[in-house]
Amino acid sequence: MFNYSRSTLALISLALIGGALAAPKKVDGYNSLGVVKGKAGGNMTLALGDSPQSLFYYGVIDNNLGLISQQLFDGLVEFNFSTYKIEPALAESWTISPDGKTYTFKLRQGVKWSDGQAFNADDVIFSYKNIIMNPEARAGDAGNFKLDGKDITIKKVDANTVQFNLPRAAPAFLLQQRYFIMPQHKLAKFSQDGGAKAADINNAWPTNVAPSEVVGTGPFKLASYTAGQKVSLVKNPNYWKVDASGTQLPYLNSLDFLIIRDPQAQVAQFLAGNLDQLNISGAQFPDLKSKEVAGAPFKVVRSTALFGSPPFLAYNFDAKDAGLSKLFGDARFRRAMQNAVDRDRIIDTVYNGLASLPGHGVAPVNTQWYTNTKAQLGKFDLAAAGKALDALGVKDTNGDGIRNVPGGKNLEFDLTYGTDSSVYPAIATILQSDFKKLGVQVNLKGVLSSKLLSTGLAGDYEAILAAFGDQPDPELRKPIWQPGGALYYWHRSTQPATDGGTPNLAKMAPWEKEIYNIFNSAATTTSASQRKALYTRWQLLFAQNLPVTPIAKPENIGAISNKYGNYIYNLGVIPGYNPVPLIYQK
Amino acid sequence: MLSYALRRILGMIPTLLLISVVCFIVIQLQPGSFLDQYLEDPRVTKETVATITRQLGLDQPLWVQYLTWIKGIVTEGNFGYSFANGRPVAELIWERLGWTVFLAVLTLMVSWLIAIPLGIYTALNRYGIGATITNFLGYISLAVPDFLVALLLIALVLSAGGTNVGGLFSPQYIGEPWSWAKVLDLLNHLWIPMIAIGLEGVAGLMRQMRASMLDVINQDYVRTARAKGLAGRAVLWRHAVRNAVNPLISLAGLSLPTLISGTIIASIVLNLPTIGPYLYDSLLNKDQYVAMTLLLFSALLLLIGNLLSDLALAWADPRIRFE
């Protein structure tokens, strides 16, 4: 096994070096996605949901800034647009030591920052040390640079090589290195290296910064920001990617983001032709699609989603009511209740058919990790659900039409959901009415969607509708799906007594313990096939025991003006996934 | 008069202090914290939450947070900083104030210019067809919320093939230097918010003006003036309207705070770069110093508006004197 993984790695790195001798990266091989040779020039206008809070990506946690930053900066590695495999970006190639503990990145030569300065290993070291690994940087990621309490270290080998040393093997490490690399020559004065305090880095590049200060390696550079109205970017003449025939990317001369808060106002602006592309929801689909069919000058594009949040129903295993807590912690109960979840109806009516059956922790479109668990999703069958509840002794003993928890109380619980969402209220109502038919009384309890997670983490609910994103590698979602993890909120009593300690294994059901071990092993196993086997087992355990009941996986829907070619669905803020440089104006 | 104004201004200070305490308490009573909105982000770990809480001073006792804020305002004119933007609150409000004041003043002027003549007209021709129609339209525009009018106008413009469906400029003019083309573009966009936001004001003011006009025209002094043989026009403008307009002057003062909070939903729907949506966001996200400063500012505007309308009343109505 050991030899096998070593030779695979050697082959991969050989192939990478072979393909990347020339400094610019050739973006090729997307014919299957409809990508053709474009022409240079033109402008495109996109929507931004609100004003960016800063222009420094690591200083604020802000999706609007994320969308802009994606066009301004690059990471060491990035995704292939069609396979989601990791490809070279600012790093031209890399090698991973056979023990999986040393990652050496060879940087692309000849890359320049948008102000003409040369990019080199110092910038990478600076970005990691002062920003990404800086615990005071608000949107840094210091937590990911500790493994079992020990630090990951980074060092410069030479002007074009950097090396990471890990205390143990961590196979998802490469996937994570999509962090945007920042310019040392512009940010040093805000950093510890430059003599400032660690927290001062958050003050870099506020929204009133001079655009020339914001320097990146990305396809575009900042031109201007008009408070509350527009962010303008122009082509970065030094960008390091070329198309299949060697023309420098991006094709577009400029990229504007109009700040429009209201989704309906965004659609109006799109219809008026002031926006050229827009990501829309299932609810907005029929209207736009019928306009397209009637000859409007745009296309509505659907694509299955890898990222994104599939909503799920979670029962609080630690509910304050002892009877409910016992029932909710019983996998047989959750399986019985799953039969009363009418997924088809929700997909049809709530998502207008623009969603599909969910996976268990892994999106079905994720060919690398997904295990087909469709059979375990069960069928909507109230009679079967009723029988299963009867078998658990959950019967209507006092004849009031509502089942009783063994011991006497009515089976009645609150369902917390987000009121300001286009899907949660409708899903909650459907669940409530079907559960009612089953003799289970659900009381709806609305909160703001932004408060759902904090409500969950505080354990202040009985059942809750929430969503967590799918990611390309389950390792990246470990805090959610590993029992005792920081976000495993349906069973809070498994949490460790102190932060970072060992979770409370005694509180875990046998299947939870098994999942706990699976995540621990998979985190250090370097063999891809072994990891695949482990995660397959996890998905089956998930599907069987339903720590949460996944409901549906919404599709991505985007609308794009016919003026543009090479459109690939805009995923939103996914570092390392940016097809915009390929878009051209016809 | 001067000493009266001074006394009033000094009296505002304790009032504002009290209001600031109330604002602070109300915001603290909201459930959750500023960091809630970030919890779903995979980049945010428990440690990050703890770090940011410490950086923002949210781990301090509440009274310390309040006193620090008030001390900043009093000693250095520092209204705190925005958690979200990491910039001083005053600076951020200032950035958004220009368009807010411009829109508010313009809407106010337009609605007064339309409403007062209409009010007088409907009072004088109480049973005429024109007045009945005007009244009817007034009722409708009072009943329809401003954001709905905005949505209807957007739909109308869209179906007519227009592109001016929100914002104050077409995308290509945002951030460009001023030019005639830009002014024209602004005018082309401006009429929608003017109608959407102004319509309700017009209807309300018109009803007010009509009512107080009706009050006034039967008063003794108007009859006396008529009996003296003054011309109808002079009676109307010099005696009736001048007195009927008094209650509206107080109203004008009270409408100052609507600068901030009056048009939140219409501003969101029409995508106007004003302060309203900013207040709404800061309340939702518990960006506490922004929300508190805006609420305090709004209270201050109310006090100032009251003072101004009292002074204006004294000027307009010789019967009111302060000394």
Automatic annotation (TrEMBL), chain A:
Keywords: Signal, Transport. InterPro entries: Peptide/Ni-bd, SBP_5, SBP_5_dom. Residues 85-473 form the Solute-binding protein family domain. It comes from Deinococcus humi. Belongs to the bacterial solute-binding protein 5 family. Residues 1-22 form the signal peptide. This is Peptide/nickel transport system substrate-binding protein. GO terms for cellular component: ATP-binding cassette (ABC) transporter complex; periplasmic space.
TrEMBL record, chain B:
The lineage of its organism: Bacteria, Thermotogati, Deinococcota, Deinococci, Deinococcales. Belongs to the binding-protein-dependent transport system permease family. One of its GO terms (biological process) is transmembrane transport. It is found in: Cell membrane. Keywords: Cell membrane, Membrane, Transmembrane, Transmembrane helix, Transport. It comes from the Bacteria. InterPro entries: BPD_transp_1_N, MetI-like, MetI-like_sf. One of its GO terms (cellular component) is plasma membrane. This is Peptide/nickel transport system permease protein. The chain crosses the membrane at residues 9-29, 97-124, 136-158, 186-206, 248-269, 289-316. Gene3D superfamilies: MetI-like. Residues 97-313 form the ABC transmembrane type-1 domain.
